[in-house]
Specification:
Blueprint (H helix, E strand, L loop, with lengths): L8 H12 L4 E3 L4 E3 L10 E8 L16 E7 L5 H11 L5 E6 L2 H16 L4 E6 L20 H14 L4 H13 L1 E9 L17 E4 L10 E4 L3 H16 L6 E8 L5 H17 L3 E8 L8 E9 L2 H8 L38 H16 L1 H11 L4 H9 L4 H6 L3 H16 L1 H18 L6 H19 L9 H16 L4 H18 L23 H13 L3
Parallel strand pairs: 3-4, 3-5, 5-6, 10-11
Antiparallel strand pairs: 1-2, 2-4, 7-8, 7-12, 8-9, 10-12
Helix pairs in contact: 2-3, 4-5, 6-7, 9-11, 9-18, 10-11, 11-13, 13-14, 14-15, 15-16, 16-17, 16-18, 17-18
Length: 557
């Protein structure tokens, strides 16, 4: 974690926030943030806050159309009553002050004391309590109740818009409470968070498991489970929300998929796609989607889902503009149904009357299956020597193929056409391009006639020449070329000597394997492995290994 000192982590970060934000002012004693521009006379001020570590909530939502003042506490620690009291006095414009408070004991207590102090100052105040986390909901009503989590942002947005258009304090409170009562959330963690200065995470979570029902202060969940695929995970998160809100077919909602700090936008979009499909199955209409990182738990890897039942009045306030720096400027105005679950890239359809050529089809199918089976090992090699995407790219291409049909019915040209198109259309990156063009040369030779030793050697030579022209790699650069060059030499030598096919393929396989193994001691000068230099020494290049497997699988076919 980047820091100057654990003790000064929050004030150090606030310095950067203030320096990079326009409409913001810092009051260091007792410590609160306000909008730099005062409110018009008579407008309701919206004040919120809580422990730091949840950014961009709350400070990122300070601005016209949302919050007027924010009181930050230390990491995961509520602000104190004096902070809140002074902030409210500073921003009161005569219309009263609304507190938006998450249902955590420290927050509730300190904001409550601040309201007592504000009554002494004859400042009208009220509160909207956000309690949306179904993970802590109890049927008997005992305990502290639902925690306040990601729905806080929805309440802040709607209340801020209502205040901005001139509603009274009583009306802003009414609207805020309606939204809060109509909102529920549920969260999951793939990895816990670690607080500044801490040497251990907030809880232990073994690899391959998920923690369901975690809290945004790093609290453990209510259930630990084996990792689930996204569709099933979304159902596990969403069903308790639907049950708690008693959502039914025809209901309309705002749907928020929120990252907890260390979750990539691609993951969040993936979860939203699954959520959209699941709600559509139930006839629940997403009126407004919001996907991104808004309420975090420091650097926790995980996400939360929030649903809020809405009507036209709430949607009008939701759509109102805001100048808060963390509010998305162009949120989608309506939900677009997710299309068919298709892969990127063109699909491949084999000819309807393929010519049987079992040896070539079986050779390539055996090789493809081996690569698919060895994906974890290939990914590990590339993670140690490159960027870790090689195995994924191999699978992205090869899983497009019907290996049973290839093995039993495809001609040689159909086989290599299919595999070339799979790489060029689905793998992406350098490996997709190079493997795609490599196999394209086998297709070009095969469509002219039978693939005997001479034509295999010609295809391999043409593929090698094309690869070196495209990427510039040469033997010794720790790439797939280190396996291809000795394989091509062995093939051409076998053809020149008019060798027996089986013997030549065996020598070719051995040469390719030796070439691949030689990359273990190399320092790369081409490809992604070149970026890590000496760190890649001691690792076999995965591309060279896959080429060696290609020729090994040829033996006997």
């Amino acid at each position: 974690m980047f820091m100057r000192s654990a003790k000064t982590f929050v004030p150090d970060a606030l310095r950067g926030l203030i320096a990079s934000t326009g409409d913001i002012a810092w009051n260091p004693d007792p410590g609160y943030l306000t909008r730099a521009q005062p409110l018009p006379n008579g407008q309701v001020a919206i004040v919120s806050g809580g422990g730091s570590g949840h950014e961009p909530m709350h400070a990122g939502f300070l601005g016209a159309g949302m919050l007027t003042a924010v009181c930050p506490g230390l990491v995961f620690t509520s602000p104190n009553a004096l902070q809140i009291h002074e902030a409210c006095k500073a921003v009161d414009a005569g219309g009263g002050v609304l507190h938006i408070v998450k249902n955590y004991t420290g927050d509730v207590m300190n904001f409550g004391i601040a309201r007592e102090l504000l009554r002494e100052d004859h400042i009208d105040t009220d509160v909207v309590l956000v309690e949306d986390d179904v993970a802590t909901e109890r049927a008997d009503g005992d305990g502290p109740g639902r925690r306040g989590t990601a729905a806080t942002v929805v309440v802040e947005k709607v209340c801020g818009a209502a205040a901005e258009r001139g509603e009274s304090l009583a009306e802003v409170v009414r609207i805020g409470r309606l939204v809060a009562q109509s909102a529920r959330s549920m969260a999951v963690a793939l990895a816990p968070c670690t607080l500044p200065g801490a040497t251990e995470p907030s809880f232990d979570l073994p690899a391959g498991q998920m923690e369901l029902g975690i809290g945004i202060h790093g609290e453990r969940g209510r259930e630990r489970i084996d990792a689930l695929p996204a569709p099933e995970l979304v159902r596990r998160l969403t069903d308790p929300i639907i049950d708690s809100l008693e959502l039914a077919e025809g209901d309309r909602v705002i749907a928020l998929v929120n990252g907890l700090g260390a979750t990539h936008p691609l993951e969040l979009q993936l979860l939203f796609a699954e959520l959209g499909e699941y709600l559509a199955e139930k006839g629940i209409h997403i009126e407004r989607p919001l996907v991104g990182t808004f309420v975090t738990a420091m650097n926790m890897a995980g996400a939360s889902i929030t649903l809020v039942r809405v009507d036209d009045q709430i949607l009008e306030l939701w759509d109102a503009p805001s100048a808060a720096p963390a509010w998305p400027n162009s949120p989608a105005r309506s939900y677009s149904a997710v299309g068919p679950r298709e892969s990127f890239g063109p699909s491949y359809t084999a000819p309807t009357t393929p010519t049987s050529d079992g040896n070539i089809g079986a050779w390539v199918a055996d090789w493809a299956q081996k690569v698919l089976d060895e994906e974890p090992a290939l990914t590990d090699l590339d993670r140690r020597a490159g960027d870790g995407d090689f195995g994924t790219n191999m699978v992205a291409a090869l899983e497009q193929l019907d290996l049973t049909e290839m093995r039993n019915t495809y001609s040689a040209s159909t086989t290599f056409d299919a595999i070339s198109q799979a790489y060029l259309g689905h793998a992406g990156g350098t490996s997709g391009a190079l493997f795609g063009i490599w196999f394209r040369h086998f297709f070009r030779v095969a469509r002219e006639g039978t693939l005997d030793l001479a034509t295999i050697a010609a295809a391999a030579r043409a593929g090698l020449d094309n690869i070196t022209a495209l990427g510039g790699a040469r033997p010794g650069d720790k790439t797939m070329v280190d396996a291809i060059v000795p394989a091509v030499d062995a093939l051409e030598e076998g053809v020149r000597l008019d060798g027996v096919r089986a013997d030549v393929l065996q020598r070719t396989s051995e040469a390719a394997r030796a070439g691949a193994e030689s990359t273990e001691v190399m320092v790369a000068s081409r490809g992604r492995a070149s970026y890590v230099g000496e760190a890649a020494r001691g690792v076999v290049d995965p591309g060279a290994l896959v080429i060696a497997w290609f020729f090994e699988c040829a033996v006997g076919h």
